[in-house]
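In this section we walk through a basic example: taking a raw amino acid sequence and producing a predicted 3D structure, encoded as discrete structure tokens. The instruction is simple. Fold the sequence below.
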Amino acid sequence: MGLIKDKLMSSAMPHTSTGVRARLPRTVEELHTLIVAEQPNLSARLKLVAIYLVEHPQQIAFNTLAEIAEKAGVHASTLVRFANYFGFDGFSELQRLYKNQIIDHPSNYRERISQLKKAAGGNGEVSPALLLHDFAEGNILALGLLQQQIKPEVLNSAVQLLTQANEVFICGVRRMFPAAVYMNYALSQMDVRCHLIDGQGAMAPEQMKWITAESVLVAITFNPYGQTTTEAVQFAREKGAKVVLITDSELCPHTQHADAVLIVREADVRGFRSLNSTLCLVQTLCVALGYQG
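The resulting token sequence is shown next.
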């Protein structure tokens, strides 16, 4: 599972506490905040559950205990222990938080997910039309979740940081490279001073060396988190620059170093993760910055 798994698995000794006994989380957001705070105390198996819950909220809402356990790579009893650790009577009580999140935002998510499962089951034949249906429906769902989960105040904060910067540095490698390139292109078309950090030709140190305290670094990084992005975030903080982080999980190791954190849950269809939601968010930041001018 990459860097985040290595980070979370580094503490293999089980937590001897009876768990979290404070007021039960009432929302998914409260639960995720608690998970982030408690993750250093979790055992290795409970950390696997934490990673899966934070990164796959829609699957938690709709899948069975057995399905979630299989995907998370743990036994079903570990899910129950995880729920008990955070004060729930059982996993179904914890799972209700995720279901309520969908209920609180009326949509046809359940029908869409049902259609995806039905299409994936089928008779084993995969046609281009079926793939188009799967990917389109998956991305529609992910874009709907993006609208719900991006807080206006955090989005506004990110735009203000970009507005106040003398120049913008953008870092995205591997799968996030297209999003970084698009943001660099869009900002340059609006006459915003911007620089792309992509590490091509082992030039990352030279690409980031002009970052100053008046700069903003936009770091776009998803699990597994690229080393170039990690180095860019560390260098930006050393220089006193602001950091806008676009990532897939509250457990991303860079969240503690960022001034604004934007979480994106991309569509994952047939083992292929999309970029549509990330590109939508990047486009929003660029156009919003343009309106500030």
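Looking at the output, two observations stand out. The radius of gyration is 20 Å. The chain is about 55% helix and 10% strand. In the next section we compare this with other chains.
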